């Protein structure tokens, strides 16, 4: 899947079209500066019986942030790719009683990943993503993503 361009509007459309749970969760793409993607979701759509954010929603948001930044980067490269999550580790540190705010920043290894993807048509990368609450880390996620060119 290739985004028509590397804009937050294109990513927002892809989330809601290709991954319907993102629409139910109320995920919004807030910003992207080429190295960091910020996405949010309202607590109301993702609340649990404790009146805090549901752990599954937090996981979905961080996983989708990693997927999203790779969609934007492959669009910048002009590549049509299939991106999947292959595994990861999660840590829940604080309950979230407010809007879910997630940031995914590209690692230093991104340039090597992009070269492998361009040269061989397939590459994997480890992305660290997190839920931020009042400047503190409420949740951390380190996910392995595999990207393969489709053409």
TrEMBL record:
Thioesterase putative domain boundaries: 9-148
Xref: Pfam families: YiiD_C
Protein name from the UniProt record: YiiD C-terminal domain-containing protein
Species of the source: SAR86 cluster bacterium
């Amino acid at each position: 899947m290739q985004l028509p361009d590397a804009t937050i509007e294109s990513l927002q459309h892809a989330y809601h079209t290709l991954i319907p749970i993102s629409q139910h969760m109320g995920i919004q793409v807030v910003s992207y500066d080429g190295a960091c993607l910020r996405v949010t979701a309202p607590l109301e759509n993702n609340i649990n019986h404790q009146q805090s954010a549901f752990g599954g929603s937090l996981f979905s948001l961080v996983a989708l942030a990693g997927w999203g930044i790779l969609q934007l980067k492959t669009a910048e490269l002009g590549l049509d790719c299939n991106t999947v999550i292959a595994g990861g580790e999660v840590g829940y540190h604080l309950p979230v009683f407010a809007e879910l705010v997630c940031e995914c920043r590209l690692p230093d290894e991104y340039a090597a990943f992009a070269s492998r993807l361009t040269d061989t048509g397939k590459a994997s990368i480890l992305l660290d993503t997190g839920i931020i609450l009042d400047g503190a880390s409420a949740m951390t996620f380190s996910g392995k993503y595999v990207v393969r060119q489709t053409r």
